């Protein structure tokens, strides 16, 4: 049996998204900038994808900008708004547990003279609204918050945070990294007061190399890519029409029968957490109930290095990540696990299980069965 439990790293592309992409690749392959019918047909796929995505967020279609994925969306949101608004202030705020696609551009902006405040988190990876309130000042032009942490599934209080930010400084822009949240939660940017929101296609059963950035109308932002002026000059370059079409279809599909899908994911997560917690030496990091993400479980196995655990499970066709997939091929210790105060002996003994709407109960049962079998054996070789 195979259990793919690494869905926060990437998901399998949906059949509907794949079929639509093949049609665009093989039949409707015109350049959307061309004036002939092939070009018009291609442009219509882009408009249709904008329409599908805008519907899921209850925003205007013109506020959806297509990108190459979450990293580009986050870079554009941070660098584009910081450079466009620097006359209003040079202060930025984010958290200490952000993905590298936020922390790296923040470091770049610091090199350009901006000042960044990094909010701390508690043992569950959640920010303090009081600390956020204290951090916002007249000079603050942008706050960027991750809605769902990619390593432990912490859920930040976005709606409440936006209220705190706007009450202190109404001119401050709010960006939400929703890459692990979109398709798992209903998100309402206009109702909540969000100015920018990033999403990645391959996290929701869409294609890799696709994503979008919601940009509230009239938000001051500079493009990162210049050239032919596509997408109203905000992102030059011929659009990835197959990827955009697939992303739009995946977005529409993931929000069909949404509550039923998410309820099922929480039930699977609850079962996994309950059974895994019974295994000696196993502990679960962060919150695990409805106040956390439905798809992420961070598991520490005392005395067993994460790499050993990962490959032992891999030998049984169970696929997981060591921490987050984006950093698992690097030797650095997870800053998220450090920030939540995980004990030193567990920092290198933590793996991430992540589910999708297609994860089956059989996959959960199989993973638990194998963990019960292999963990006692691996712990015999503990470093204690």
Structure description:
The protein is α/β, with parallel strands linked by helices and 384 residues long. The protein is 39% helix and 14% strand. The chain has 12 helices and 12 strands. The chain has helices at residues 15-26, 37-57, 70-85, 100-111, 129-135, 158-168, 189-192, 241-254, 258-277, 306-315, 335-339, 361-379; strands at residues 3-4, 64-67, 91-95, 115-119, 140-146, 173-177, 196-200, 211-215, 282-285, 296-301, 318-319, 350-354. The strands form 3 sheets. The chain has a 7-stranded mixed beta sheet, sandwiched between helices. Strands 9-10-12 form a 3-stranded antiparallel beta sheet. Helix 7 (189-192) links the parallel strand 6 (173-177) and strand 7. Helix 1 (15-26) runs antiparallel to helix 8 and helix 9 (258-277) runs parallel beside helix 12. The radius of gyration is 21 Å and the shape is globular. The chain starts with a strand and ends in a 5-residue tail after the last helix. The mean pLDDT is 96.
Can you give keywords for this protein?
384 residues, 3-stranded antiparallel sheet, globular
Tell me the layout of helices and strands.
Layout: E1 3-4, H1 15-26, H2 37-57, E2 64-67, H3 70-85, E3 91-95, H4 100-111, E4 115-119, H5 129-135, E5 140-146, H6 158-168, E6 173-177, H7 189-192, E7 196-200, E8 211-215, H8 241-254, H9 258-277, E9 282-285, E10 296-301, H10 306-315, E11 318-319, H11 335-339, E12 350-354, H12 361-379
């Amino acid at each position: 049996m195979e259990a793919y439990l690494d869905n926060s790293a990437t998901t399998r592309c949906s059949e509907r998204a794949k079929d639509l992409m093949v049609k665009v690749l093989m039949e409707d392959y015109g350049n959307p900038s061309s004036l002939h019918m092939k070009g018009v047909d291609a442009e219509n796929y882009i408009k249709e994808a904008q329409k599908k995505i805008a519907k899921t967020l209850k925003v205007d279609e013109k506020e959806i900008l297509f990108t190459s994925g979450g990293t580009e969306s986050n870079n554009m949101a941070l660098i584009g708004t910081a450079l466009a608004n620097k006359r209003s202030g040079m202060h930025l705020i984010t958290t200490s547990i952000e993905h590298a696609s936020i922390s790296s551009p923040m470091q770049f902006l610091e090199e350009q003279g901006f000042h960044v405040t990094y909010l701390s988190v508690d043992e569950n990876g959640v920010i303090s609204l009081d600390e956020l309130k204290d951090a916002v000042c007249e000079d603050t032009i942008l706050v960027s918050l991750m809605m769902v942490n990619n390593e432990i599934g912490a859920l930040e209080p976005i709606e409440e945070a936006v209220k705190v930010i706007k009450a202190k400084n109404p001119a401050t822009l709010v960006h939400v990294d929703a890459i692990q949240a979109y398709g798992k939660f209903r998100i309402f940017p206009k109702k909540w007061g969000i100015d920018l929101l990033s999403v990645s296609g391959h996290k929701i059963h869409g294609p890799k190399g696709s994503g979008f950035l919601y940009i509230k109308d009239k938000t001051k932002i500079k493009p990162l890519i210049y050239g032919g002026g596509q997408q109203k000059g905000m992102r030059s370059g011929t659009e990835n029409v197959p990827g955009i079409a697939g992303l739009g279809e995946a977005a529409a599909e993931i929000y069909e029968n949404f509550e039923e899908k998410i309820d099922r994911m929480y039930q699977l997560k609850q079962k996994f957490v309950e059974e895994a917690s019974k295994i000696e030496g196993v502990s679960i990091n962060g919150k695990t109930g409805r106040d956390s993400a439905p798809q992420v479980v961070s598991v520490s196995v005392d005395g067993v290095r994460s790499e050993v655990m990962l490959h032992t499970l891999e030998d049984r066709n169970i696929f997981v990540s060591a921490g987050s997939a984006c950093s698992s091929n690097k030797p650095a210790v997870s800053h998220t696990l450090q920030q939540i105060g995980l004990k030193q002996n567990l920092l290198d003994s933590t793996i991430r299980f992540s589910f999708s709407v297609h994860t089956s109960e059989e996959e959960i049962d199989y993973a638990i069965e194998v963990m019960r079998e292999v963990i006692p054996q691996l712990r015999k070789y503990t470093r204690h």
